[in-house]
Amino acid sequence: MTTVTRRALALASAVLLAGLLSACGDDQPEGKPSVQGLTMKEWSEPASYSYTLESGGGEAPVGPIRITVEDHKVTEAHGLDDTGRRVDRDLPDDIPTLGDLLDELGRARAENAHITEADYASDGHPERISLDWDENTIHDEIGYIISNYVPEAG
């Protein structure tokens, strides 16, 4: 898969912790997007790795999905709860790599989305990404939590 579709983003919305978007508070100047996380270390997506993805926001929840990436392509995905299994079953081609998620963050920043935040691990891989495309649009926000990242040795 090379892009994360808006349909997949809407379906992939779930289990967003209240604190994920708490940074959307009143301390942001009106009309200015939030750009936390711009100090990430240089990180290159390895060809092969695995990780767990949870996402939330919008209307449709998605629980954790364990994802395996080989040669920069999702080769396995296992939903760890009912919502994750539903996405795995119904939209297998829309399950993102970490590169896809970072591309989506880059597009949001390029399009001056209202919220474009990310937190990174010490090695530079993303651990959390929060997007809100339009301040005045309901249910267009999305948050991703990335955990259990394991690069394949090689």
Q: Can you offer a commentary on this structure?
A:
It comes from Streptomyces cinnabarinus. The protein is an alpha+beta fold and 154 residues long. The chain has one domain (6-16, 33-151). It is 18% helix and 31% strand. It contains three helices and six strands. It has helices spanning 6-11, 82-90, 98-110; strands at residues 49-56, 62-70, 73-79, 115-120, 126-132, 141-151.
Would you spell out the secondary-structure blueprint of this structure?
Layout lengths: L5 H6 L37 E8 L5 E9 L2 E7 L2 H9 L7 H13 L4 E6 L5 E7 L8 E11 L3
Antiparallel strand pairs: 1-2, 1-6, 2-3, 4-5, 5-6
Which features characterize this protein?
154 residues, alpha+beta, six-stranded antiparallel β-sheet, 3 helices, 6 strands, globular, disordered N terminus, DUF6174, signal, DUF6174 domain-containing protein
Concise structural overview:
It comes from Streptomyces cinnabarinus. The chain contains three helices and six strands, in the order H-E-E-E-H-H-E-E-E.
Number of alpha- plus pi-helical segments: 3
Radius of gyration: 15 Å
Profile the largest sheet.
Answer: 6 strands, antiparallel
Structural class: alpha+beta
Task: State the total count of DSSP E strands.
Answer: 6
Shape: globular
Distance linking N and C termini: 23 Å
Give the number of domains.
Answer: 1
Question: How is the quaternary structure best described?
Answer: single chain
Low-confidence stretches: 1-40
* Helix percent band: 10-25%
- Helices and strands, in order, run as HEEEHHEEE
Order of strands in the sheet with the most strands? 3-2-1-6-5-4
The average pLDDT is: 75
Beta-strand content = 25-35%
Pfam family, one: DUF6174
Keywords: Signal
Signal peptide: 1-23
InterPro entries: DUF6174
